[in-house]
Design a protein that fits this description.
Layout: H1 2-19, H2 25-36, E1 44-45, E2 53-62, E3 65-69, E4 72-75, E5 80-87, E6 93-98, H3 100-112, E7 119-120, E8 123-126, E9 131-137, E10 142-147, E11 159-164
Helix pairs in contact: 1-2, 2-3
The chain binds copper (II) ion (CU).
C-alpha cells in the first residue's frame, strides 16, 4: 500500500510538472487509499510456505483485440493460486485482481492518470516480454475479475474472471 501511494505521489508530481496542475490529483490519491485499504475484495496475498496451484495466463494483442488467455479460471474457496502472467504482446499491460467494482473504479482513475505504475500484491504492471508471479489466496467465495486498466485495454477485451466456489 505504501509503495502504491509513493508511486501515486510520484505520478501526481510528474503530472503536476507537466501540466502545472496539482489540485485534482490529491482527491485521486485519497480515493485510492480509501478504495482498497489493506483488505482486498478477492481474498488475500498468498503464503508461499503453503500449497498452491500454478495458473499461467498469457497477455497479447491480435487484430485490434487485447486478451488474456485463459480468460476464466475456476478456484475452490480457500485455494491458493500462483498466477504466472506473461506479456507476449508489444505493449505494456497490467494484471489487476479485484472485484469488478474496484476495477471499474480504478479504471476511471487511470483515465485521469494513464502513466500509473502498479506493484501491489494484487496488481502488477508488466512490460512486453516480461512475466510476473502473483500468489493469491482466494479466501472469499464469489466471482472476481482480472483486468488491464490502461485506457482502452479493458474495452479491447483485456479482462477475465475468477469464479471461487
Ligand atoms: Cu493492457
Amino acid at each position: 500500500m505504501l509503495r502504491t501511494l509513493r508511486v501515486l505521489a510520484a505520478a501526481a508530481f510528474s503530472v503536476a510538472l507537466t501540466f502545472g496542475y496539482m489540485p485534482s490529483m490529491l482527491p485521486h490519491a485519497m480515493a485510492h487509499e480509501g478504495a482498497d485499504d489493506d483488505d482486498y475484495a478477492a481474498g488475500e496475498p498468498g503464503d508461499a510456505t503453503k500449497p498452491f496451484r500454478v495458473v499461467e495466463i498469457t497477455m497479447r494483442e491480435s487484430d485490434g483485440a487485447m486478451t488474456y488467455s485463459p480468460d476464466s479460471v475456476d478456484v475452490k474457496q480457500g485455494e491458493q493460486i500462483k498466477f504466472i502472467v506473461k506479456n507476449t504482446g508489444a505493449l505494456k499491460h497490467e494484471f489487476f485482481l479485484d472485484s469488478e467494482q474496484h476495477n471499474a473504479h480504478h479504471k476511471l482513475e487511470m483515465q485521469k492518470n494513464p502513466e500509473m505504475e502498479h506493484d501491489d500484491p494484487n496488481a502488477q504492471s508488466i512490460e512486453p516480454g516480461k512475466q510476473v508471479e502473483i500468489l493469491w489466496k482466494f479466501s472469499k467465495a464469489g466471482t472476481f475479475e482480472f483486468a488491464c486498466l490502461i485506457p482502452g485495454h479493458y474495452e479491447a477485451g483485456m479482462h477475465g474472471k475468477v469464479v471461487v466456489k
